[in-house]
Amino acid sequence: MTDWPSVGIVIPTHNRPQQVRAALRSVLTQFYPGDVEVVVVFDRAKVDESLASDGERPVRVVKNERTPGLAGARNTGITALDTDLVAFLDDDDEWLPGKLAAQVAALGTEAELCTTAIEVDYRGRRNSRLAQRTMVRHGDLLRSRMMMLHSSTFLFRRSALLGGLGLVAEDAPGSQNEDWDMLLRASRRRPIAHVDVPYALVNWAGSHFETRWDTKISSLRWILDRHPEIHGSPEGAARVYGQIACWHAATGDRKEALRWALRATKANPSEPRAAVAAAAAAGIVGVPTVMAALHRRGRGI
Predict the structure, then answer these.
(1) Hey, CA dihedral for 175, 62, 101, 1, is it positive or negative?
(2) How far is 11 from 64, CA to CA, in rounded Å?
(3) Which pLDDT does position 145 carry in this prediction?
(4) What is the tally of helices (H) and strands (E) in the chain?
(5) How far apart, in whole angstroms, are the C-alpha atoms of residue 281 and residue 170?
(6) Which of these, 179, 260, 292, 298, is most buried using a 10 Å CB contact count?
(7) Judging by beta carbons within 10 Å of its beta carbon (0-12, 13-18, 19+), is residue 251 exposed, middle or buried?
(8) Residue 157, helix vs strand vs coil
(9) Other residues' Cβ atoms within 10 Å of the Cβ of residue 2
């Protein structure tokens, strides 16, 4: 590639002063021949002007003026940029060396979105999550959320975000599952290019959303409403139903947990989340305990 497109990176942040500096450093130290600029968007937090800088890779700091939450903060950053491409990075994650150049090259001329594999860090234990493919299609994302396609790896054509693809959905409850929604919308338009190398270090400890069970439930119901085709995929539907069952069990709502667990089993008799939800509803095991055990292996419910 001789003419490298300009790239703008959006880093939303909320009360993580140390982590956001590490995230920013991982962007500014990337080898990339093209122009790079960063917008750090402060969401419901005081803007730290000390992060701003000029130079070859300017850093701007702005306040989220849209819907409070991650989605609104990302959209604030997108609309503040005027670059060819836009990339996302969460404030508690980091890019690994080589990420940006490899991903821009893989985006090519056809794709509107490119992702990479990830390395999950959970309390010091690291596990790589690979997709075992270089192209992701809509059917793949109906069968599975494909957690390795993390939002901190998203690289878009900005023209798509401002055009037919659209911005991040700000009506997602608690700004959860808006990333899966974006993947589903993008893959419906065109296949997603993927670099199956763990180029992003994703921190799974201390998430703002980890135990917000009610929000987890409402955001999954929101996804099912927006993408009813998920119901037509036995594996994908059972996974979502099983997750909803687990989150109901975590809130202590045994009746709803068992109802959704039964629905998951009917869709796919081998769905393991149904058994987890039933065991949690019976008081045999706690959902947070199961989550912690899975996170240590780089997995989740």
Answers:
(1) positive
(2) 11
(3) 94
(4) 11, 10
(5) 32
(6) 260
(7) middle
(8) strand
(9) 4
Question: For residues 156 and 170, is the Cβ–Cβ distance under 8 A?
Answer: no
Chain centre to alpha carbon of residue 86: 15
**Residue ranges of the chain whose pLDDT lies below 70:** 1-2, 206-209
In this predicted structure, what is the pLDDT of residue 208? Answer: 56
Return the axis-axis angle of helices 254-267 and 234-251, rounded to nearest 10°: 170
Q: Which long-range contacts (CB under 8 A, 24 or more apart) does 161-169 make?
A: 161/78, 161/86, 162/78, 162/79, 164/189, 165/112, 165/113, 165/189, 167/74, 167/75, 167/78, 167/79, 168/71, 168/74, 168/75, 168/78, 169/71, 169/226
What pLDDT, on the 0 to 100 scale, is given for residue 257?
98
Q: How far apart are CA 59 and CA 51, in angstroms?
A: 7
CA distance 30 to 20: 16
Residue 216, both tokens:
């987890």
36-42 vs 59-63, strand pairing mode: parallel
Output DSSP code: residue 301. -
Retrieve residue 242's tokens.
């099983």
